[in-house]
Amino acid sequence: MKNNLHVFLGATVADAAARPLHWVYNQKKLLTYIKGKKDFTFLKNNKSPFYNIKTGKVSGYNEVGQVMFKTLVEGHENIEERFKKNITKNFGPGSVYWKNLNLRAKYRKVKDWRGIIKGPWIHQNIIESVKNIKAKKKLTGGAKVNESDGYCAALPYFLYGYDFNSLKRIISTVTVSKISLRYALAKFHLIDFALKGAKDPINEFIKKFKKDSYFKSIVEDIKKVKRLKSKPHPEVVKKLGMACSYPGTFNSSIHSIINSSGYKGAILRTIKAGGCNCSRVNFIGAYFAALKGVNSIPKSWIRKTDPAKKILNQR
Q1: Residue 275: phi, psi to the nearest 5?
Q2: Segment 217-232, tens digit of pLDDT
Q3: What is the spatial distance between Cα 224 and Cα 222, in angstroms, rounded to a whole number?
Q4: Are 202 and 210 in contact (CB under 8 A)?
Q5: Which of 85, 169, 95 shows the shortest CA–CA distance to 134?
């Protein structure tokens, strides 16, 4: 596919596949939802305890990538400014995301929101970004959380061949957290190695950056995860981090990658571990699509993914 967009397709399909089980933190409960199923992607009945969207649609993580993709399809002039406008239009006041944000304040003490929040869930980084864009701040990214929104936003931009320096500016549009920036760039280096034909991008990353002070903590993280390779994935995810934040979301992703031989197995393994599976599969799906090519993504999954057609149309 043109501009390596099969990698973005890999992230998008994985997100939609995991979405009905997004943010199920009780691993025992999750097992009851998938009991007897070999393929528990695209569950018809939403099991996320926080919000409910139609199966086939994507979470807020992948959605910000879709907004960047739309921005790039429209043209390549003033990308940052147009991206900010599109973020405000898609997530800000007047959107269903913003409407649901106001609804959340009302139901803060309710544990299971499934029947209440009908429609998508806006993330903290995007809430802050919308406010900062409206306030015309120079740095518009969110600062309160260390999560994957920056990586997700910049993925299509990276695939269109923009360099790592300009990538930092795009990531900073939605997050100014130094931790988020560092882990996002590490993900892009790993995907880059995969696209360039490395047999083992993770070992390539260790080799290239073992003496690099910027990525020192990430290299150490990867080595720590490698030592846990033989442990069961759900157990390791519980230990390393089930939630949306770095470093847990990155480290849990690496454990899934090193224990999987391909796209489908990695996504199923990640969903089964619970928690913020969508943030993890947006990276894992992209990684395996880069490593193994577009044909590694199950065609039946692509057909079930609402935004897939628009990506495929860019052939």
Answers
A1: 75, -145
A2: 999 999 999 999 999 9
A3: 5
A4: no
A5: 85
